[in-house]
Design brief:
2 domains, 4 helices, 192 residues, elongated, alpha+beta
């Protein structure tokens, strides 16, 4: 089940040089995180951490149960006010429920991002200069992918790791055996 029962998001950041993935996973999978909603309910969040070559992807899933209950309650109050001809209170009740729903989702997502970035000791631009230096090194080496640093496959025009398009040129296999004939030239002539 996904939205409206769960809200999923992702955070991707470059790995710092002294980054320990196991400690990071233990910290965020422990369930001891203190993430509060606007009404100070604890938020139920599930984390999935994917370690890629130069970056970390953190997928998080927020349970929307409490937000859905409050939104439902605000719609019930709006219906109650509407039945007693208090249309202004009915509209205000709906707006309060919707604004709480959106504001709470925004607050919890921002809290999760702040927790992740505070754990790695940085902000949104973590280790950009280090990655830039690595990419400069990768671009100079013709045997590495310039985007992720993976060794190139000489028989493919795409990177094995990140899928970036590298070039049209592929290496042709040349085998040396007695059945191959070298230096064959084929001329094509157009018939009129």
């Amino acid at each position: 089940m996904t939205f409206p029962f769960y809200y999923t998001g992702e955070i991707i950041f470059y790995k710092p040089e002294n980054f320990e993935n196991t400690d990071f996973q233990k910290h965020f999978e422990s369930g001891n995180l203190k993430i509060k909603t606007l009404l100070n309910f604890p938020a139920s969040v599930t984390f999935i951490i994917n370690d890629e070559n130069v970056s970390i992807q953190v997928l998080y899933k927020i349970s929307m149960f409490e937000q859905n209950i409050i939104l439902l309650f605000s719609f019930l109050m709006a219906t109650f006010f509407y039945l007693f001809d208090a249309n202004a209170l009915s509209i205000i009740s709906i707006f309060i429920g919707v604004f709480y729903y959106i504001g709470n989702l925004s607050k919890v997502s921002k809290s999760i991002k702040n927790l992740v970035y505070s754990y790695i000791g940085g902000n949104l631009s973590v280790e950009e200069s280090t990655l830039w230096n690595l990419q400069q090194k990768w671009m100079k080496d013709k045997n590495l992918c310039p985007a992720c640093g993976e060794p190139k496959n000489p028989y493919s025009n795409k990177c094995i790791n990140c899928g970036i398009y590298l070039s049209k040129k592929t290496v042709k296999l040349e085998s040396e055996n007695s059945t191959t004939v070298k230096d064959i030239v084929i001329d094509y002539k157009i018939k009129k």
